[in-house]
């Protein structure tokens, strides 16, 4: 279970109503398949040993006795299987019949979890046969010993950190206060649900929302195994709609109206990190209200099957991406709107370069002016050509400003920078960091002074990816009066600009925006080469798609370098070699720790997503923290030295 991953499975076997022999055989087949696939936790549907739809046959001793016999055979059949298994069956205790989920591991019955909420409405009439179970466990006899019987049972893996499993059964999830709430408060990180939920029009959508929502609310993994084909269709149809979710994300979903097994991996480390981060997510000592049953699993390194998103900041679905872009643009504009109203400013200043970040900042400013009902010509867009400015970016900046209706002002800073370099005794032919930064600082001075001159507000353009890497000139483009892009990663900046180009309704404006998107990312601080951009940011600091991936996993889940390296190799397997990923991951960590001082004094700006680097909000990181232990761990992963 390297890096906290454990493979789980939800199985929906074909059953025969009231035939425990056949059903046990089908379950055993699926268990063998699950073992072959490396599943360590496998969940079966509610009452699957008999079938859920037995009706009054549940009152027959013949069925109950057969179910008990076949269950004993099933337990024995798990002796050679390295997994925790949950199986639904009826269980008689003290003259009452209970609907239970039996937890079995390596030929050992660990406990019997009882259904707490037994429905008796609409198509359900379970109270005719079953008694609701008590929360607090009692004991039932099993093969000369005793096992816990009740709702509050935790199954704790003694040799897999963070694996604590609890169960609920079907309707338990659909009630006002599901038992899983108490289970999670008691320490459960994975909830399983043995279910028999029938299909009606649209019900699968609600079922999915329940499972994903509960996994998010409880910050847990949720494995939901549903009854399928083979159940009685006298009045209902069961679709075998099984689901596996993790902290609000649906990781696996079966095809409806079919039987089979779905697999994926849960990330226990990620769940633990999220619970640790959320101070309101409190795990309480369960005390005597819960029984804890320990079990062991053989540790195993998995080849991950779950999708590792190479662009975690950008939704893959086009409709969701468009909705997200519209929402983010609105958040950015509303943040700036409040600042404008508070300062009493009627004008704004934006430095426009023809690059992605300044384009987005101008789009946001235009949107904000429209919200306030202010004329767009009150926006002063300033282009400041210098040594590295190319014709392409210059013309795009001018045309973009014209099409958006802002006022354009050109201030060449070549003479001022040359004079400054002369004043400090710097040879202008030496193209070092002083040469580059003097241009950025001169531009910021121009923008600040123009903002003062017109009583306006200077809108910052720098994005979160640049700030994470420290790819900004201190007291240069690093400074503004409000940074609208401060929590927008570079990979998302691109999609925001593309979205605006797609929906703006102006063919000429769309054309210039698409050309901005096609322009290499560059600060344009070095002289052009043959009229083109000579300084490409991603050649110097690395691909932003990699850095955004690293940034997300470092800040969102606190992943260690070795885990991020492993995930990145999977996510970018067909894009970058292991050596390239390692190189830029090392660069990321070195720059991230070295450049915190730039982030510690950032201007205000709105948070738009789950990751942000504001020193007043999400990232309270010391400017002089050592990155040694992270870099030491990375050194041990070097593919060149490991051979």
What is the third-level CATH name, the topology of the largest domain? Answer: Rossmann fold
Q: What is the CATH homology-level superfamily of the largest domain?
A: HUPs
The total of helices stands at 20
* Mean pLDDT metric: 95
The CATH architecture of the largest domain is 3-Layer(aba) Sandwich
Query: Which strand order does the major sheet show?
Result: 6-7-5-4-3-2-1-14
Low-confidence stretches: none
Structural class: alpha/beta
Query: Any idea of the CATH class of the largest domain?
Result: Alpha Beta
Please tell me how large the radius of gyration is.
30 Å
3D shape: elongated
Overall domain count: 2
Strand content: 15-25%
Explain what this protein looks like in three dimensions.
- The chain has 643 residues and is of the alpha/beta class.
- The protein folds into two domains: 2-281, Carbon-nitrogen hydrolase (Nitrilase/N-carbamoyl-D-aminoacid amidohydrolase), CATH 3.60.110.10; 318-642, Rossmann fold (3-Layer(aba) Sandwich), CATH 3.40.50.620.
- It has helices spanning 20-36, 61-77, 179-185, 203-218, 268-277, 318-343, 356-372, 391-404, 414-423, 433-453, 464-469, 490-503, 507-518, 537-541, 544-557, 561-571, 578-594, 596-599, 628-635, 639-642, and strands at residues 5-12, 41-43, 84-93, 96-105, 108-114, 138-142, 145-150, 153-157, 164-169, 190-195, 221-226, 243-246, 249-253, 260-267, 291-295, 347-351, 379-383, 407-410, 456-460, 482-483.
- Strands 6-7-5-4-3-2-1-14 form an eight-stranded mixed sheet. A seven-stranded mixed sheet has the order 13-12-11-10-9-8-15, covered by helices on one side. The chain has a five-stranded parallel sheet with strand order 18-17-16-19-20, with helices on both faces.
- Helix 1 (20-36) packs parallel to helix 2 (61-77) and helix 7 packs parallel to helix 8.
- The mean pLDDT is 95.
């Amino acid at each position: 279970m390297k890096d906290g991953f454990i493979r789980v499975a939800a199985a929906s076997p074909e059953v025969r109503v009231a035939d425990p022999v056949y059903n046990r055989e089908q379950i055993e087949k699926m268990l063998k398949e699950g073992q072959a696939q490396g599943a360590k936790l496998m969940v079966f549907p509610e009452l699957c040993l008999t079938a859920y739809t037995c009706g009054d046959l549940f009152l027959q001793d013949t069925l109950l006795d057969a179910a008990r016999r076949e269950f004993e055979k099933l337990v024995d059949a798990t002796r050679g299987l390295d997994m925790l298994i949950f199986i639904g069956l009826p269980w008689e205790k003290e003259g009452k019949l209970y609907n239970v989920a039996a937890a079995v591991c390596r030929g050992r019955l660990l406990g019997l979890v009882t259904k707490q909420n037994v429905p008796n409405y609409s198509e359900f009439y379970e109270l005719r046969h079953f008694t609701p179970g008590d929360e607090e466990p009692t004991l039932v006899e099993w093969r000369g010993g005793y096992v816990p019987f009740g709702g509050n049972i935790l199954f704790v893996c003694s040799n897999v950190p963070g694996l604590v499993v609890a169960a609920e059964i079907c309707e338990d999830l659909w009630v006002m206060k599901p038992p899983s709430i108490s289970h999670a408060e008691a320490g459960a990180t994975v909830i399983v649900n043995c279910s028999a939920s029938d299909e009606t029009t649209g019900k699968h959508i609600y079922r999915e929302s329940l499972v994903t929502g509960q996994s998010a609310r409880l910050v847990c993994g949720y494995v939901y195994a549903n009854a399928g084909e083979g159940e009685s269709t006298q009045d209902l149809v069961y679709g075998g709609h099984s689901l596996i979710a993790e902290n609000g994300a649906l990781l696996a979903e079966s095809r409806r109206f079919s039987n089979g097994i779905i697999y994926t991996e849960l990330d226990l480390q990620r769940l633990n990190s999220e619970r640790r981060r959320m101070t309101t997510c409190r795990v309480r000592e369960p005390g005597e209200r819960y029984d804890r049953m320990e079990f062991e699993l053989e540790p195993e390194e998995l080849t991950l099957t779950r999708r590792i998103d190479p662009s975690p900041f950008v939704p893959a679905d086009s409709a969701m991406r468009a909705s997200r872009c519209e929402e983010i643009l609105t958040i950015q504009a509303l943040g700036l709107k409040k600042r404008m109203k508070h300062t009493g400013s009627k004008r704004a200043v934006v430095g426009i370069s023809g690059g992605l970040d300044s384009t987005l900042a101008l789009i946001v400013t235009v949107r904000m002016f429209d919200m306030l009902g202010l004329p767009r010509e009150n926006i002063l867009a300033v282009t400041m050509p210098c040594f590295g400015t190319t014709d392409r970016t210059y013309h795009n900046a001018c045309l973009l400003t014209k099409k958006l209706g802002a006022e354009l002002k050109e201030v060449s800073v070549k003479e001022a920078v040359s004079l400054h370099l002369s004043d400090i005794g710097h040879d202008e032919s030496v193209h070092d960091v002083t040469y580059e930064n003097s241009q950025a600082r001169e531009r910021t001075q121009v923008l600040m002074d123009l903002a003062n001159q017109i009583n306006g507000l200077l809108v910052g353009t720098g994005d979160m990816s640049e700030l994470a890497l420290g790819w900004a000139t201190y007291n240069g483009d690093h400074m503004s009066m409000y940074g609208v892009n401060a929590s927008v990663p570079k990979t998302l900046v691109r999609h925001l600009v593309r979205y605006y180009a797609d929906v703006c309704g102006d063919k000429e404006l769309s054309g210039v925006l698409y050309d901005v998107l096609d322009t290499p990312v560059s600060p344009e601080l070095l002289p052009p080469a043959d009229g083109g951009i000579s300084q490409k940011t991603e050649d110097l600091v690395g691909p932003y798609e990699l850095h955004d991936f690293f940034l997300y996993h470092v800040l969102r889940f606190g992943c260690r370098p070795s885990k991020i390296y492993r995930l990145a190799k999977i996510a970018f397997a067909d894009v970058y070699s292991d050596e390239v990923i390692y190189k830029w991951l090392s660069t990321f960590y070195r720059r991230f720790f070295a450049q915190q001082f730039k982030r510690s004094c950032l201007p205000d700006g709105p948070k738009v997503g789950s990751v942000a680097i504001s020193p007043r909000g999400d990232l309270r990181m010391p400017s002089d923290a050592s990155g040694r232990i992270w870099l030491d761990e990375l050194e041990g992963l070097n593919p060149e030295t490991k051979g």
